[in-house]
């Protein structure tokens, strides 16, 4: 604990926004105030959608931020608020980016034909994520 005090003093006055923009891996270590900063979060998810997982506060329920994250990396959907996992526009953007993001959708959207077709178009392996009855649908099988 004694070692941590000088280390913390050394970090006072550090421009975390600059640090995380240069090295996005450091975002998870940034103080909470930076992880709740919407503008910084938006800039970061434009670089790597997976950084949505390190946001704090209500940023994971910010529709514009989540849309940006899933457009960049569909599997970032797993870190979105459950309500947005049930948003069809978000779902279509996520599966267009990464078909296997299908697994993070709400049950309702995992049964939506348009979403299923979009996911299968991006990755035929999505067929394995469908319910048994949906896997029998010839249209879905052809798309896969």
Description:
There is one protein chain. The chain has helices at residues 4-11, 16-22, 32-35, 38-47, 63-72, 88-97, 113-122, 132-135, 138-143. The radius of gyration is 19 Å and the shape is elongated. Residues 1-10 have low confidence and may be disordered. With 144 residues, it is mainly alpha-helical. Helix 4 (38-47) packs parallel to helix 5, helix 5 runs parallel beside helix 6 (88-97) and helix 6 packs parallel to helix 7.
Task: Give descriptors for this structure.
disordered N terminus; 144 residues; mainly alpha; elongated
Along the chain, the helix and strand elements come as: HHHHHHHHH
Provide the gyration radius in Å.
19 Å
How many E strands?
0
Give the averaged pLDDT, no decimals: 91
> Number of helical runs?
9
Coarse structural class:
mainly alpha
Strand content: under 5%
Most strands sheet: none
Envelope shape: elongated
Helicity range: 40-55%
Sequence stretches where pLDDT stays below 50 over 5 or more residues: 1-10
Distance between the termini: 56 Å
Please give a quick description of this structure.
The protein has 144 residues and is mainly α. Helices cover 48% and strands 0% of the residues.
How are the SSEs placed, and which strands pair?
Elements: H1 4-11, H2 16-22, H3 32-35, H4 38-47, H5 63-72, H6 88-97, H7 113-122, H8 132-135, H9 138-143
């Amino acid at each position: 604990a004694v070692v941590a005090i000088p280390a913390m003093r050394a970090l006072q006055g550090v421009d975390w926004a600059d640090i995380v923009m240069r090295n996005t891996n450091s975002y998870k270590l940034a103080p909470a105030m930076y992880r709740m900063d919407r503008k910084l979060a938006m800039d970061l998810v434009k670089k790597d959608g997976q950084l949505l997982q390190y946001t704090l506060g209500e940023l994971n329920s910010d529709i514009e931020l989540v849309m940006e994250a899933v457009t960049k990396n569909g599997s970032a959907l797993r870190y979105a608020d459950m309500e947005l996992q049930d948003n069809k526009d978000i779902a279509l953007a996520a599966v267009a980016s990464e078909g296997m993001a299908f697994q993070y959708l709400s049950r309702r959207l995992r049964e939506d034909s348009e979403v299923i077709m979009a996911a299968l178009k991006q990755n035929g392996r999505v067929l394995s994520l469908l319910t048994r009855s949906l896997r029998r649908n010839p249209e879905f099988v052809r798309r896969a």
